[in-house]
């Protein structure tokens, strides 16, 4: 273990990437393989339901106890810097057992650059340095052109020129996240073949404003020595990380909406999954996550959907908690039809009695 004095800056790794790219899965892996470091984790979610924080707290151990895992829910880390983010980081630094490395998971819709700028704040700058920005990109989604439909036309120049802003909101977030990266991890390699992986790599390379290491990753498994300890001091290197929102103090999240759906017990998990797949196709849903109460099952079902890919897992008994289904749904604002989504999910509720 490294010996640290109070004069040493605490390294922070920012883990970013679009909704559902696998950020929480990577952090779980890093928590399980901390390389002797005492960790703290700050997780930011777009929706109001703290699913990621809950998942991470269930992995707490002596290297990263539950009090070292904090959530900034219902927001965008980049817009709440002064009010929420800085005080939270200061709280982490004041823990009796000072963390030796802090991992920050941004929400999948956050632009990482305003966050990097926060590390320039006087109270933070002298005590923390951004060791690196790790950007995850879902290899299958990228290869299918879900972010940049015409990769040949993607020109890094456009990032610097507001007048050429023809991007979709999805593409803008994706490009900003790549622009900030020190390393790009192409996640979910099990869902693509070799050609798909190479295609995704080409798209990322064309979008990135400078040459970057692009590494494949499955189920969050990567040698922590590759992603931690980069010493990038990203806060000193902002100009090399262009953003669509450079020059704007504020940015809007109106392009995306989240809704929380509360329901009683669900009859059949397979039919619920099928209904979510149909919704993802027809309502352009980007992400669904939360907990489901299945009639007759003592365990709660953790449900995660990224586009049409749905994963479920019974994670723990309900115990004394009310058996209630609660899902957060995130979609593009122009496409979301809250009534249709609610009706389709309510159709899966178990009949009374
Ligand atoms: N097939 C496959 N699924 C994966 C892999 N990594 C993560 N997933 C799944 O993808 C879903 C989203 O993973 P998360 O780690 O929650 O993604 P995230 O980026 O933290 O999601 P948000 O915080 O909502 O943006 C989960 O169902 C994971 O189990 C992988 O390598 N392969």
From TrEMBL:
It comes from the Bacteria. Keywords: Chaperone, Hydrolase, Nucleotide-binding. GO terms for molecular function: hydrolase activity; nucleotide binding. It catalyses: GTP + H2O = GDP + phosphate + H(+). GO terms for cellular component: cytoplasm. SMART domains: CobW_C. Gene3D superfamilies: CobW-like, C-terminal domain, P-loop containing nucleotide triphosphate hydrolases. Residues 256-349 form the CobW C-terminal domain. Belongs to the SIMIBI class G3E GTPase family. ZNG1 subfamily. Zinc chaperone that directly transfers zinc cofactor to target proteins, thereby activating them. Zinc is transferred from the CXCC motif in the GTPase domain to the zinc binding site in target proteins in a process requiring GTP hydrolysis. This is Cobalamin biosynthesis protein CobW. The gene is cobW.
């Amino acid at each position: 273990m490294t010996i640290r004095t109070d004069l040493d800056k605490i390294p922070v790794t920012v883990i970013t990437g679009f909704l559902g790219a696998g950020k929480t899965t990577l952090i779980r892996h890093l928590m399980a393989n901390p390389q002797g470091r005492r960790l703290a984790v700050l997780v930011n979610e777009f929706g109001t339901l703290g699913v990621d924080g809950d998942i991470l707290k269930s992995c707490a151990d002596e290297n990263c106890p539950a009090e070292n895992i904090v959530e900034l829910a219902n927001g965008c880390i980049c817009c709440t810097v002064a009010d929420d983010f800085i005080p939270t980081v200061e709280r982490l630094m004041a823990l009796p057992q000072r963390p030796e490395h802090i991992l920050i998971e941004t929400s999948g819709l956050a632009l990482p650059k305003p966050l990097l700028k926060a590390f320039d704040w006087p109270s933070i700058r002298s005590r923390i340095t951004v060791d690196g920005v790790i950007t995850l990109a879902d290899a299958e989604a990228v290869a299918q052109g879900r972010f940049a439909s015409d990769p040949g036309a993607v020109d890094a120049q456009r990032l610097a020129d507001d007048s050429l802003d023809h991007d979709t909101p999805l593409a803008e977030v994706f490009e900003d996240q790549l622009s900030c990266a020190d390393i790009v991890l192409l996640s979910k390699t099990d869902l693509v073949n070799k050609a798909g992986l190479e295609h995704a790599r080409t798209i990322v390379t064309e979008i990135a404003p400078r040459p970057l290491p692009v590494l494949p990753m499955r189920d969050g498994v990567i040698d922590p020595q590759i992603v931690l300890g980069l010493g990038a001091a990203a806060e000193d290197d902002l100009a090399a990380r262009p953003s669509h929102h450079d020059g704007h103090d504020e940015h809007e999240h109106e392009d995306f909406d989240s809704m929380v759906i509360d329901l009683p017990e669900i009859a059949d998990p397979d039919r619920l999954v099928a209904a979510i797949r149909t919704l993802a196709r027809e309502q352009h849903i980007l992400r669904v996550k939360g907990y489901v109460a299945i009639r007759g099952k003592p365990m709660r079902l953790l449900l995660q959907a990224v586009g049409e890919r749905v994963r479920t897992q019974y994670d723990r008994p309900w115990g004394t908690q009310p058996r209630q289904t609660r899902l957060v749904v995130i979609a593009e604002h122009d496409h979301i039809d809250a009534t249709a989504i609610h009706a389709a999910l309510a159709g899966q509720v178990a009949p009374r009695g």
